[in-house]
Amino acid sequence: MERKIVFSVGEYYHVYNRGVEKRRIFLDRNDKERFLRLLYIANSDIPVVFRLSQKKPLADIPVGKKAVAIGAYTLMPNHIHLLIKEVVDGGLSLFMEKLMTAYAKYFNKKYDRVGSLFQSRFKAEHIDRDEYLKYIYAYIHLNPIKLIEPTWKEKGIGDMKRAKKFLDTYRYSSYQDYAGLHRPEKIILAPKGFPAYFEDRYAFADAHQDWLDFKPTT
Fold first, then answer.
1. Is 157:136 a contact under the CB 8 Å cutoff?
2. What is the tens place of the pLDDT at every residue in 75-102?
3. I need a labelling partner for 182 at 20 to 30 A (CA). Which of 36, 40, 159, 169 fits?
4. How many Å from the N-terminal Cα to the C-terminal Cα in the chain?
């Protein structure tokens, strides 16, 4: 089926995908860490090698020309969210094909399964407004709160201190990178490809706190 959206160089997109039949696509810590490595390695014109060293630092892995700029990401048990800017023609589709294929091959081999891992071709929404782009940062980074407070968007945060601590310690998103924690995974991101909404970690925290404080009307 032909995709309705047309990707263009210089444009921003919210990209997401979930497991087939909503199944879990990350079953343990190693699965999540593998996917994070692939976010970096697949974003290159160098072919992805399936047998990657699990211990080699990301900075020591050779990569070629980037296909996309990644602004934010979050891994959830059965789906992923990415904020992407296309930087070369056809780069977004190429990057996602390499990323999804490489991870599915890894997952199927590890768990001795066959068939599709992901529900379908990835979904994407064009971000065509500044306000929408700012919102997507918060949407992606705050998504993991659903793991501890499934109805927080409908009812508000029940325990703010617990929610903030969870975000601060959740390793499988880019939240920690923007919050000022220095870690190897920061190399995945290309913040210079996106508007400078967050001058420092305090501005980032304030912007996300506004959404955490939001109380739905009844």
1. no
2. 999 999 999 999 999 999 999 999 999 9
3. 159
4. 40
Regions of the chain with pLDDT less than 70: 1-3, 48-55, 215-218
- Give the pLDDT score at 120: 81
Q: pLDDT tens across 32-43, in order?
A: 999 999 999 999
Q: Closest Cα to residue 205, out of 160, 166, 175?
A: 175
Give 66: exposed, middle or buried? Use CB within 10 Å, 0-12, 13-18, 19+.
middle
**Whole-structure pTM value:** 0.92
pLDDT, position 102:
92
Provide CB contacts within 8 A for 156, sequence distance 6+.
214, 215, 216
Residue 136 is encoded by which pair of tokens?
Answer: 């997507």
For the chain, the three-class secondary structure string (H helix, E strand, C coil) is CCCCCCCCCCCEEEEEEEEHHHCCCCCCHHHHHHHHHHHHHCCCCCCCCCCCCCCCCHHHCCCCCCCEEEEEEEECCCEEEEEEEECCCCHHHHHHHHHHHHHHHHHHHHCCCCCCCECCCCEEEEECCHHHHHHHHHHHHHHHHHHCCCCHHHHCCCCHHHHHHHHHHCCCECHHHHCCCCCHHHHHCCHHHCCCCCCCHHHHHHHHHHHHCCCCCC
CA distances from 142 to 19, 48, 83, 136, 137 (A): 20, 30, 13, 10, 8
